[in-house]
Amino acid sequence: MVLVQSIDVSAIDTGPQGLTTDGKYLWFCGSQNSQVYKIDKFGNLILNFAVDKPQGITTDGKYLWVMIFSSEPAIALINQYDKFGNLIQSIDVSAIDANPTGITFDGKNLWFCGVENQSIYQIDTFGNLITTLAVGGIATGLQGITTDGKYLWWADFNGPNMHQIDKFGNLIQNTAIVPPLTNPWGMTFDGKYLWIVDKTAATINQWSRF
């Protein structure tokens, strides 16, 4: 992969985590201030709203879906918001995986990573489980996840690596994540580029896939 640009978001939030794009803007959640942020692709803040314990984020184009996780108290939710921060619904996913992390939308359904069972899950937008992909044999540091429509891409903070799999769980390729990226925590695909959050450096990094 080739680094195209790196956006420093430390002045906005020093703990960026999940990341998504609606095509024009980037949205990320931050653990420092427990906020969801909308920025342009130069890093300028457009708006923000409070979300308690956000872990990952995706969009279906109209709505935002935010992963909410806490170990104490135990919380594992996917909250659906409009783009002004109004809560639409809340889905409890703790019975599927009590330690969820990254989340993405494939045009119809949601996919999310679960650390507890080392799996990637596909659910519908009402929370019904469709598919479980056990990926612990590939890597154990599940974090951010995205899709290019055909394949799933997920970040492994233990490598750090990025793994490409098909939607049946078959490994297509492993890619070592190179400096300056060291702690991938969230990722999204805009149709051409991969964008990956580095939580430690508080940056959002735009990468070509090749």
Describe this structure in words.
The protein has 210 residues and is mostly beta strands. The protein has a single domain (2-208), classed as TolB, C-terminal domain (Neuraminidase). The chain contains no helices and 20 strands. It is globular. The mean pLDDT is 92.
Q: What's the order of the H and E elements?
A: EEEEEEEEEEEEEEEEEEEE
Give the strand order, joined by hyphens, for the main sheet.
1-20-19-18
Number of helices in the DSSP assignment: 0
Q: Sheet bearing the most strands, described?
A: 4 strands, antiparallel
Name the beta content range. Answer: over 45%
Query: CATH class, anyone?
Result: Mainly Beta
**Tertiary shape:** globular
Assembly state (oligomeric): single chain
CA radius of gyration? 15 Å
Could you give a short description of this structure?
This protein is mainly β and 210 residues long. It is 0% helix and 56% strand.
Write the layout of secondary structure elements.
Elements: E1 2-8, E2 16-21, E3 26-30, E4 35-39, E5 45-50, E6 54-59, E7 64-70, E8 75-81, E9 87-92, E10 100-105, E11 110-114, E12 119-123, E13 129-134, E14 142-147, E15 152-156, E16 161-165, E17 171-176, E18 184-189, E19 193-198, E20 203-208
Antiparallel strand pairs: 1-20, 2-3, 3-4, 4-5, 6-7, 7-8, 8-9, 10-11, 11-12, 12-13, 14-15, 15-16, 16-17, 18-19, 19-20
